[in-house]
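User: Predict the complex with zinc ion.
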Amino acid sequence: MKATKTCPKCGSKSVTYKKGSSNSYSGKFHLSIWRSAKLERYICLDCAFFEEYIIKDKSFLKWSEKQKKNIKPNLDDDFVDFV
Ligand SMILES: [Zn+2]
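Assistant: Here is the predicted structure with zinc ion placed in the model:
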């Protein structure tokens, strides 16, 4: 939806964009206690379907780089350790 500007549910091209306000709680997504990310939404004006994305600002990129280092190549290994 972000890339195509077309609604994946109904195929409408009437897709609008809305940035989450930095003041409102719903406009933020908490990555951690200290870090929150601003959100952007793509909304279909015909069927009201919407998608949310985190705005890739400096704060998000720093956080995502850290997360990438924590991704394990094989998730099954984690499960074996847990059991
Ligand atoms: Zn739609």
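The radius of gyration is 17 Å.
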